[in-house]
Amino acid sequence: MQKLLDDSVTYAKSFPKTGAVASYIPELAKADPTRYGAAIALPNGRTLISGDTDVPFTMQSISKVVSLILALQTSGYDAVFKRVGMEPTGDAFNSIIRLETNTAKPSNPMINAGAIVVASCIQCEHPFEAMLQLTRKFCGNDQIELNEAVYLSEKKEGKRNRAMAYFMQSEGILPSDVDVEYYLDQYFRMCSVSVTAPDLARMGMVLANNGVNPVTGERVAEGWQVRIAKTFMVTCGLYDSSGAFAVKVGIPSKSGVGGGILSAVEKRMGIGVFHPMLDAKGNSIGGVRMLEFLSQRMGLHMFSEPETVAG
Ligand code: GLN
Fold first, then answer.
1. How do residues 57-71 score in pLDDT, each as one tens digit?
2. Atom of ligand 1 nearest to the CA of 154
3. Cα–Cα distance for residue pair 87/206, rounded to 1 Å
4. Tens digits of per-residue pLDDT, 172-181?
5. pTM of the model
6. DSSP secondary structure string, 232-245?
7. Any catalytic annotation for residue 61?
């Protein structure tokens, strides 16, 4: 398996360098486009690593998985899905169009508008602290912290997210008695939590194990919450590439414009990959290549024949 992981990084590097690092959040433009990292976390506690696995990057949209689970934990199913839908959009992650043409209720929790509403559903005194703690538990890493520079950069430049939040408040989707900036601040912070590929691999393993850390036996989230999160990872996890990714890779996954992708192979393993160059949809180019390789070579597609699954 170590050899396959190494080969997946080599495979991803073999493609011509296309795409670009995210620059609409100025601080993200500083990412080194030559970095490729991949990690696999196994139920026995072993984490295999290859490439630039010590390079930190911000979770960005991957944080939407954690905040959704925290919202479900603190507000419950009905309160969350009263305010956010369950359908993929086929639009870009930061698209505004459906908020007015369809309904102001965002289509799902994995698009930006949906995640801002989800942030408003986290019922506790210090929502960001709670989200950070939950991320640390999922990743089995107490050292995970906010990247202050990325947070401040996004807070300063996040005009599009701000526009969506004010629009949703005007339509009564966000509470009118709370300053919209409060929810936006939580959202920007959550996106700016800094992780590595092995952190994501370990989080993927907990998700693959339905919310229980297989090493410590600790339950990080309830099975029903994890099932909902993984379902959205299948249908909406790679923005408007989710359909093609499901056909080609077939592993519940969530990408972020920081260049990371979180993947959970049911019962078997968690995978974390990282490469900051993004395609036109905002997905990590090298990350998708590595996952394509691993899925094919190890038979990890969710509809693989059991006998094709490598041990
Ligand atoms: N923080 C980013 C934004 O709001 C997250 C988007 C992403 O990773 N797709 O634009």
1. 999 999 999 999 999
2. 1
3. 25
4. 999 999 899 9
5. 0.95
6. HHHHHTTGGGHHHH
7. yes
